Amino acid sequence: MKTKLSLILSCILCIMMLTSCGSEQQNTEQTVNTYASSKSVSLQTQTAETFPNQTSAAQNTENTADGKENAAMKMNVQIGNSTFTASPENNAAADALVKMMESAPLTIKMNDYGGFEKVGSLGTSLPVSDCHTTTQAGDIVLYQGNQIVIFYGSNSWSYTRLGKIDDLNGWEKALGSGDVTVTFSLQ
User: Please, which residues have CB within 8 angstroms of residue 177's CB and are 6 or more apart in sequence?
Assistant: First the structure.
């Protein structure tokens, strides 16, 4: 009897976890409407199976809140003397990050964590649309709404995607094994 009850509860928990991304997307859309005031922000639906580089060409050319096209927008990620180009995601959190970088580059001290990521505080919160994700090297994500995480390894957790490094040549070497200072800016 205990086994059957445990199995039923496990199934219910799995179903709740799988459907949570959809309900968070609806909450995010409400947050975006408040955050963006009168600007029109388009969101693309993300699930655990959707990866930012697997969006259609039509989704990649949708306009962001300030009228720039995501396909043409790039940001620089500078670590020491190495600079990498990244493509921002098309969502409210990435739009808010871009807006922050429009006034000045964003410099963050990032701590090494777990031998696969660097984590640093933004000092402010961005709109969240967390979804269970398995990250890869080069992913840039938002954790708990106020921390940027950049990956040189892989991890599975609930994150809001912010962007992806375009070319990983030298990425892991630039990040090194300790803490780093990273500057995010628009091209």
Answer: 112, 115
CB count in 10 Å sphere of residue 142:
26
Q: Is the Cβ–Cβ distance between 101 and 182 less than 8 Å?
A: no
Instruction: Give the chain's length.
Output: 187
* Residue written as token pair 């940027």: 148
What pTM does this model have?
0.65
* pLDDT for position 71: 52
Q: Where are the alpha helices (DSSP H) in the chain?
A: 2-35, 57-60, 92-103, 171-175
- The answer for residues whose C-beta is within 8 angstroms of residue 143's C-beta and 6 or more apart is 119, 149, 157, 159
| pLDDT, tens only, 66-101 | 444 445 799 999 999 999 999 999 999 999 999 999
Q: How far apart are CA 131 and CA 50, in angstroms?
A: 10
What are phi and psi for residue 85, nearest 5 degrees? -100, 140
